[in-house]
Specification:
147 residues, alpha/beta, Dihydrodipicolinate Reductase, domain 2, 5-stranded mixed sheet, two-stranded parallel sheet, 3 helices, 7 strands
Length: 147
């Protein structure tokens, strides 16, 4: 029997991640901002980590430093992945789940954003997984693999 590990059940998030993978081929600077409710214990979110891993598949380093940075408050630039992608985590009441991927290049900013306003947004992905899991023969990581 197979198994699914799904960091995010939102089909909109999968589409955002796929667009980000395309953009990563053309942009050398990217940062991820993820925002969640203040009862979420982990940071960064699994979705942000998965997005950074997907971007790293472009086989390049991002965000080559142009100046020597100094953080006057440690951590203010967020965490940094081995590929050089900064991830910033926000935890506040009033939020559910949000993620923004910002790509920068001279004279332009390309922003991809997904916002969840109701937990019902995850149900189409959950139902898709329920319908597909029994036919799997191995471990599958990510909703994108079964869309």
């Amino acid at each position: 029997m197979g198994c699914l590990v799904i960091p995010n059940f939102s089909i909109g998030v999968v589409l955002m991640q796929q667009a980000a993978q395309q953009a990563a081929q053309y942009f050398d600077h990217v940062e991820i901002i993820e925002l969640h409710h203040n009862q979420k214990a982990d940071a960064p979110s699994g979705t942000a980590v998965q997005t950074a891993q997907m971007l790293a598949e472009a086989q390049k380093s991002f965000n080559a430093p142009l100046v020597k940075e100094t953080e006057t408050i440690p951590g203010s630039r967020g965490g940094q992945t081995p590929a050089g992608i900064h991830i910033h985590s926000v935890r506040l009441p009033g939020l559910i789940a949000h993620q923004e991927i910002l790509f920068g290049a001279p004279g332009q900013l390309y922003t991809l954003r997904h916002d969840t306003s109701d937990r019902a947004s995850f149900m189409p992905g959950v139902l898709l997984c329920i319908r597909r899991v029994m036919a799997l023969k191995s471990l599958i990581y990510g909703l994108d693999k079964i869309l």
